[in-house]
């Protein structure tokens, strides 16, 4: 978490530095326009020089005008005193195919003497001619312009484009940029692109240096080029040998990247599993209640998220028609919640409101189930399984009736989309968020169980219900609170799952078996065990998916491994030791 | 008292067997439109329920008699069904959509000849042998591992559920060459008889009825032998059985394999009557449903599961047609109510009512009631002894 923050701060700093450095050299708008007109009207060597200078202007306008120029979209009109006025035509034309003309020099429309805007057809005007040599110079300027784009991502893609162009003359352009570049990541990309271009050099020593450079940069993108180089019969044998070494080094790097990517995905999967299983570890592990409706608690949380999102948006409503009618009136009910029609940052923040609410709604649902059904079944754990399964059927059908049988759309806030990459390993923000979220929840649960009076009571009741009852603990109330808390955790897990998975009526069913397995592997009654086993099962699942090459096969192998593991440690990772037999 | 109840039960079974196995098929054979005619649909439906009855008995043998709640019993049922399905697929011959000598789905997957392991399934004895061997071996290996490490109670339930979940995922895969998520369907012939003929279906129905009867009588006999008593002792207190020198694990293993075989036979009879088998039949909720039939009918009895399978499925058939949107709620509600208020199920209902009446009478006759607090550590049996 800390290092992620540091990294983020670092990136921000670099970005700000880039911006301020750029601001110093930026020309004003009128200066840019003047420069453009000068370039358009000059000829020969002078024009070339002017063009090169334009590359430093770094303005959107330059890009547009130059692009139009290469496509014969810049026109020269006769001005007073035998001068020429360069203009652009607007894209929007009227019925006659005529459009207004914009003077490049000041961005104003061309008007007649009375101040009326004039319209021209493209065929009426003389185009500013370009020849082959000029077009290639313009292209070069455009490339250089793209290289100085203020957005680092756009800059990088421009660099990569040049790097893959195979034209050696682009090296100069890239090297010029390299001197100015401040962004570390972009610098690396520049090195990569230059080395890529140098691969095509006629000088084998330059080639070898480029290959070494690519190998030291661990350039995954250059793998194809390197392979082509090896396959090319014209390649110098010493270069080919060096290239082979570079390829194997890069492939090794790819394996590491995949490995860490798998570990990261496994950790995030494990974190989801952990949040789901944590609630179960409390209701099942501590209380001994087999709650088959735990999965539906997840769905309650996820649907809460959906409802909150809609309330922030255009509102939420539903109607249910029951298949009964009294005196000709169809029975049914419905509800409509008006929307806040929030936009921007306020809308994006809906998730922050949804998180606590999903905990609350799921906890309330859990409370209702505990009071109405489960409290009668504490002595019959196997039967609590059946009753809660009945409840899960009822709840699933209710979801179907209220929200429809199809999955509903929950949009991630923009601050949870996207990713950052560290040494080629991609870290999705939502996955990073899961991990952080799981850590917070685990710590919170641990604090609640060990540092609060309620936690003390919970542990007392779980260890020996009768004894706790004898010394005056109101076990009934403690049970109620514990169950509600466990269910609330499931709800939190659900609101989280809504950001990375599907939200549908039977979403709980996808997680319940895994969650039970996780708790059993960890050792029933042990929160620490659940943490370890969730991370282990999650990572194991991802690794096995990689090894077996199919998600389903990976899952099956994982389940078989779990069954075998329980042979070795029937009580799970952290079995609670006890002298009692049953 | 007990003997009288037994006699009553046997008479009831005899009557039910007569009605189900002889009377209904005979009425089905009467011409359509006659007053006494029983429709093919009914016969087919009851045949399906009877197969479910076999599954329910296998759940009850484990849960009601041995205290092992298996949440994966439908796996063995479906495995039996798949073995039968493979035989039936081979019997289609070249009448499939592609008119190829191999099953349609294999043509679809790009196969031009039959995979080796499919070949022997042209013979029914082999298919039957496999339907016993595969579930039996699976139950033996799984049970051996589970009982050796003394996995019991809830853990056993969760592990069996994981097992059937894993198997479901496996069977959904196409490259298992078992039909993927569509499974097997479009069967044409069994033993050379046309499956669409009412007479064939009637024959299958009678076979199912007889199987249920035989399994019922067999289990009834087993539960009265010494073996059956040890089995029930394991349910009540496994540790005492262990301390008395019995290898409880071996008893449980035997019962687990036996239940798997009964389930598998149920599946074999199920497939030709329903005409389709696919992996969703072994999904974890199917096994749970079977457990619910037993709970509704009354566990620890042998009639209960059959009654429960019939009753719940008939209720489900009715509710899905009458209230398609609400039937899951009705079904779920039924489970909750039965678990809460009828722990002994339908079969135990008369006894439960008598108990309530007795308590009610006692309270009325005695103004001063006995202290209602009971020591929690004592089991019901101990209390009975003290009294």
Give an overview of the whole structure.
- The complex is a heterodimer of chains A (582) and B (387).
- With 582 residues, chain A is an alpha+beta fold.
- Chain A contains 22 helices and nine strands.
- A five-stranded antiparallel beta sheet of chain A has the order 4-3-2-1-5.
- In chain A, α12 (294-312) runs antiparallel to α14 (350-372).
- Chain A is elongated and about 110 Å long.
- In chain A, 37% of the residues are buried.
- Mean pLDDT of chain A is 79; it is low at 16-24.
- By secondary structure, chain B is an all-alpha fold.
- Helices cover 70% and strands 2% of the residues of chain B.
- In chain B, the strands form two sheets. Chain B has a two-stranded antiparallel sheet. Chain B has a two-stranded antiparallel sheet with strand order 2-3.
- In chain B, α1 (2-29) packs antiparallel against α7 (198-224), α2 crosses α8 (226-236) and α2 runs antiparallel to α10 (248-274).
- Chain B is globular.
- The two termini of chain B are 20 Å apart.
- In chain B, 41% of the residues are buried.
- The mean pLDDT of chain B is 85.
- At the A-B interface, α15, α20 and α22 of A face α5, α6, α11 and α13 of B.
What is the terminal-to-terminal distance of chain A? 43 Å
For the record, give the distance between the C-alpha atoms at the N and C termini of chain B, rounded to a whole number.
20 Å
Q: What's the overall average pLDDT of chain A, rounded?
A: 79
Q: Radius of gyration of chain B, Cα only, in angstroms?
A: 23 Å
Number of strands of chain A: 9
The main pleated sheet of chain A reads as:
5 strands, antiparallel
Largest sheet of chain B, if any?
2 strands, antiparallel
Strand order of the main beta sheet of chain A, please?
Answer: 4-3-2-1-5
Model regions low in confidence, pLDDT < 50 over at least 5 residues of chain A: 16-24
- Order of strands in the sheet with most strands of chain B: 1-4
Provide the structure class of chain A: alpha+beta
Number of helices of chain B: 15
Order of helices and strands of chain B: HHHHHHEEEHHHHEHHHHH
Rg of chain A, rounded, reads 33 Å
Tertiary shape of chain B: globular
Number of strands of chain B: 4
